Amino acid sequence: MKRICTALLALLLLLGGAHAEEDIFAATIVTPTPTAGVGSIGLAISEYTYAVLTNDTLGVRFSYPSHWIQTPGRRTICYEEPVGEGDIPARMAVSVKQLDDRADGDELTRQLSSFVSAIFTQFDRYEIGNLITDVPFMGKTAYSTVYRGYKGDQVIRGTAIMASVGTKIYAFHFSCDADDYDAMTTVMEYLRSHVEANNS
User: Fold this and answer.
1) CATH number belonging to domain 2-197
2) Beta-carbon neighbour count of residue 27 at 10 Å?
3) pTM for the whole thing?
4) Over the stretch 172-195, which tens digit does the pLDDT of each residue have?
């Protein structure tokens, strides 16, 4: 317990600027039946189909909603929900970072802090939830946190998850309009559970 509290304190100190407000993420998220449509263009969640992407360069394989649009990066592959003008798209991103050695708990905390700090640069302000150190991801025990980001009158809610596999760090990021987050949780969980290392 002391280690978890220390890790959480380190995460908050490294992130600096998080508002010291009541933790709005403490309550358990109840996943509703996925029937609501999200966005003005997107399919109803119950109609989603998924495709698989394998990237040999990054050494990763994962599923994504087949109607989402890819926006690739150097170490990150992102897919974004197509929505109408002014709507907030749901987004998923998978990032891979090669380290010199295997990451221990302290290194994983540092890497997650750096990852979410980069995410927060797009917001005017943000609120961060608790650091969770026992999330299953890629067959490992991963570190995770949830957040709310504010940009103008937009409110985005997201989850960042990170695991160490060999000498690589794999990160998964999912975000969407805060009002759609509960409905999209089933999609996020499906995507998260279909990320795997590809060392072929």
Assistant:
1) 3.40.1000.10
2) 7
3) 0.79
4) 999 999 999 999 999 999 999 999
